[in-house]
Amino acid sequence: MAEREALQARNRTSNDKDRQALEEADGDIGLCGWFLVFVSLLLTLATLPVSIWMCIKIVKEYERAIIFRFGRILKGGAKGPGLFFVLPCTDTFMKVDMRTISFDIPPQEVLTKDSVTVSVDGVVYYRVQNPLLAVANVTNADAATRLLAQTTLRNVLGTKNLAQILSDREEIAHTMQSNLDEATDDWGIKVQRVEIKDVKLPMQMQRAMAAEAEASREARAKVIAAEGEMNASRALKEASLVIAESPSGLQLRYLQTLNTIAAEKNSTIIFPLPIDMFSAFMNK
Predict the structure, then answer these.
(1) Domain limits for position 70
(2) CB-based contacts of 254: which residues, under 8 Å, 6+ apart?
(3) Last residue in a domain, options 75, 96, 117
(4) Residue 282 Cα distances to 236, 241, 254, 279, angstroms
(5) pTM (2 d.p.)
(6) 140 and 91, same structural domain?
(7) Which residues form the Band domain (predicted)?
């Protein structure tokens, strides 16, 4: 862990130096270059006011412009928002969108740690933090981030088993965000959020998990029923002990049962003998 943190610190230091070098580029184009700039400026002044529409550009609030003069980035870094001036013959520029961009990770077939094939997709939110690095260090920052997100998703899920993928989505998303943010730091991109959208299982695995869940529910139902029978048996035992202590209670219980039967069904019940007449035979 300590070695990894030290390596990350060295990488951040190197990245900071690269950013500083790009931002402080002096744009030294040589004597010939300055001569061409002077000629371009004269042509611009000679064709006024027509050339003014080619020299003045507008950058919106959420954009930044990187100006290249003879292929070199001008000193001062990104321009904008607002107006900026370019020479039509010597300068070119690129606009970089600084807003948060979201994209879907296509469903990825992943083999988990416990050898189960699942299909997982997600969504990534990122923004360009340093437009100089996004232009100078990578050809297409958006496409590179999309491809890196797909490979990172497969690599992270390959170290998890199926139960962890289904239950620890937040932890997986946080791990992916950290890995992506670290990898895209050289490109001037900040990964803000990663979310796992859906986890699709094979049909056989779905049926197996459904059967397992049903068996588990049946087992819990049987345990609950057995506990109910045991509690009922204990209650009946206590009731029998109470009745045994009071013989008249048994006769009252008998009369109450007859009353309940008569209330439920329209029938006539005849009991010619009192119940206490059997007590002599029971004692013998």
Answers:
(1) 17-96
(2) 275
(3) 96
(4) 21, 17, 17, 5
(5) 0.65
(6) no
(7) 54-213
